[in-house]
Amino acid sequence: MLPPGLMQMQPGSADERRLVKRFRALDADAQRTLLVFADFLAARASDAPARSAAPEPLAEPIPETRPAEESVVAAIKRLRRSYPMLDGGTMLQETSALMSAHVLQGRAAAAVIDELEGLFARAYAALRTDVD
């Protein structure tokens, strides 16, 4: 099930044809990146119902060491594991914007990951403030 507000494409729809046309216009590396991003979004959509059904209690972050060479998608997954108390749905817009900056605008992965780490830390601090 797609999150509210996202349109579901019908097979053969104009949106689906547009997406396929854009995909075919990309080189092999960009196609792989787009598929990784699509997998990330699909995983977010499938995680949403379980997360909203049973919210996790507020806990301390579980820090994981940042690997020397890490993709943006791997960083998002690492940060989600490190901050399980955060609602990814509320952070989806900012996370997606950073992912798009990397994928579509060519921003360096390390810089985007630095911003993602800051985003998650700020969201946790805000949540902590709301609870206290």
Task: Please describe what this structure looks like.
The chain is mostly helical and 132 residues long. It has one domain (14-131). The chain is 67% helix and 0% strand. The protein contains 5 helices and no strands. It has helices at residues 14-25, 28-53, 72-82, 88-103, 109-131. Helix 4 runs antiparallel to helix 5 (109-131). The protein is globular, with a radius of gyration of 16 Å.
Quick structural summary:
With 132 residues, the chain is an all-alpha fold. Helices cover 67% and strands 0% of the residues. Residues 1-7 have low confidence and may be disordered.
Jot down its keywords.
132 residues; disordered N terminus; mainly alpha; 5 helices; 0% strand
Annotate the secondary structure layout:
Layout: H1 14-25, H2 28-53, H3 72-82, H4 88-103, H5 109-131
The secondary structure category is mainly alpha
Q: How far apart are the first and last residues' alpha carbons, in Å?
A: 34 Å
Ranges with pLDDT <50 over ≥5 residues? Answer: 1-7
Number of strands: 0
Strand content: under 5%
CA gyration radius, whole angstroms: 16 Å
Number of helices: 5
Q: What does the largest sheet look like?
A: none
Report the helical percentage. 55-70%
Secondary-structure element string = HHHHH
| Structural domain tally | 1
Assign an overall shape: globular
Mean pLDDT across all amino acids: 81
